[in-house]
Amino acid sequence: MISDRLAPRGFGHNTLHLKQRNNHQTQIDFVKIICPPYMGKQDSSQKEKKADDLPTVLLLRQPFVLTVYEKQFSEKFRFLKPWESSMPLHQFLSTHAGSVKAAFFTAGRPITADILQNLPELRFIMTTSAGLDHIDLNECKRRGIRVANAGSIFSEDVADTAVGLLIDVLRRVSAANRFVKAGLWQKKGDYSLGHKLGGKRVGIVGMGSIGLSVAKKLNPFGCIISYTSRNKKPHLSFPFYPYIKELAANCDIIIICCALTDQTRHMIDKNVMLALGKEGVIVNVARGAIVNEKELVECLLKGEIAGAGLDVFENEPNVPEELFSLDNVVMTPHHAVMTDESLNDLFQLVIGNLDAFFSNKPLTFEVVQA
């Protein structure tokens, strides 16, 4: 016998049509579970209602971390995506102005006073980057908007990239790789000499968490470390130079790790490059506009510095074409932070901070606005 236990809870015998054969074997000839016609719609509406009940977070472009962890994010937050709407941005923002209390932004989209004026209820901005040059912090302070960034979670990865770019430039790893793959080893014989890392005088521009990590990684190679920063760090024994040109004149290599501000924009100009000298190398893992890119290209083409390792550029993703043919220039596409581990750390940080904001709890890496 087939009992009612075979039928879904809440349904009886009329859900199963049975036929008895002569051999007393029972066979299910046709099974039809009768569902109330409104149940599918009810489930859909319940899902929509649940999504509507989630805290609302504004995006202006899709962060990569959201693309990778979209399922986890969407279980906790409802994201407003203006690029999916046919409305102009200002109209989209005005339409949702009353519901947006939190926003999740990336470094690739400037957050200006004009944008913030369209969001009168906004109280929290979470950004994926450590740098804050894309956000109008003065306007945020005036409006009482709290800001949190990625803090130090990328520091080790960025420092690794800085060291990798430096070794690549000095030992010409990428250029030698192209030489071998082009079949030139057989045709032209031995490749030209590179330069030793040990004993090089390395000046670090910006001794924050990234700069300090770079110093710790290069010290065991036998590099001689010095630095410039907004202030001298009392706990560090490395020589401190208050002026960038003075640092460059006493170094073979400068590695840029500082934030982009009005004071640091184009800080690395032709005068600094000439002070660094013809054997000098520049590595930039901070922001492209800290270097006067036009003057950098000019110095490289004229041989006024020896090489460059660049992860960032002044007008990304546009890169000066003059650099493409230079074997003494190694470039990566603003990729220093991009590792599986750091992306997971960023996911944990963002989701934790959004939870904290909506629960009125302390934020991690909240920016103190002077």
TrEMBL record:
Sequence ranges assigned to domain D-isomer specific 2-hydroxyacid dehydrogenase catalytic in this UniProt record: 97-367
Keyword NADP: yes
MF GO annotations: glyoxylate reductase (NADPH) activity; hydroxypyruvate reductase [NAD(P)H] activity; NAD binding
Pfam families in the record: 2-Hacid_dh, 2-Hacid_dh_C
Domain D-isomer specific 2-hydroxyacid dehydrogenase NAD-binding: 163-336
Matches recorded under Gene3D superfamilies: NAD(P)-binding Rossmann-like Domain
The entry's keywords: NAD, NADP, Oxidoreductase
Positions of transmembrane segments: none
GO cellular component: a single term: cytosol
Protein family (similarity comment): Belongs to the D-isomer specific 2-hydroxyacid dehydrogenase family.
Protein name per Swiss-Prot or TrEMBL: Glyoxylate/hydroxypyruvate reductase HPR3-like
